[in-house]
């Protein structure tokens, strides 16, 4: 842009048709003043924030603030993709795994990871190359005392797994499905809700791919675009993998049990029942049974069918209970018929 502007000035003519004299760039301007007026480039701001974050000599509040600034910068997809070019994924991952990192610092890094990779195939590929699944899953362990950190771990996992068959394929070897199964019974209800929402997102079948026209095929495919996903549909299809996990890894049984006999939650298990969690589980069941035509074992099917019938009766009919679950009456009727 600068060179184009310079060319325009150099080739401009005055009112009398004479070429204007060339303007020599000023060399007496202080770069610090220019940065103050125009602002530093995002890449520089990211580098400076990360330098503070990894410096253990800095106080923790300053490091956390730097990571907070960093997270806002990677909300831009271009900045998120620059993490690989600037070799920033490695130090971020090191902050997650370092024994000296505090809970607050690790929580901020999980936030950065989730923001950078969500809906971004290029960033997902760059991060998955570091084999981070086991690390992310470790933050969902009951031994992690902070519910906020466990919740941020689900956020990071969601960003990495959604529309990413490569990452979902690694869940079996990483023991990830078993971890998510346990998280459905987390003491914090927010964690349970987020896991149920994630499962439904992974379960939703991919939309049919429309064949590209000849003109579309000649266009470049960028790694951070949806075109990259359409060029390889198998790369973002996670439904079949998730269906298998629900059947074979105990998740389906846990979801149904969470409806029929919900576990208390809270620091002391003082709370019971949660309409939001119930709604999200019903979304999973609806997607699995009606959209994916998934099978439920006869024993569990009978239990689920009776529970849905009881809830419908309590609510005053299928239309009322459908409203509670964020579904249409037709969805509830179809679900009951399928069971």
Automatic annotation (TrEMBL):
GO molecular function, one term: adenyl-nucleotide exchange factor activity
Gene3D superfamilies tied to this protein: Leucine-rich Repeat Variant
Domain Nucleotide exchange factor Fes1 intervals: 1-83
Keywords: Repeat
Keyword match Repeat: yes
Entry keyword Repeat: yes
A GO term from the CC aspect: endoplasmic reticulum
Record SUPFAM superfamilies: ARM repeat
Disordered: region residues: 213-234
Family statement: Belongs to the FES1 family.
Annotated protein name in UniProt: Nucleotide exchange factor Fes1 domain-containing protein
Record organism: Antrodiella citrinella
Taxonomic lineage of the native organism: Eukaryota, Fungi, Dikarya, Basidiomycota, Agaricomycotina
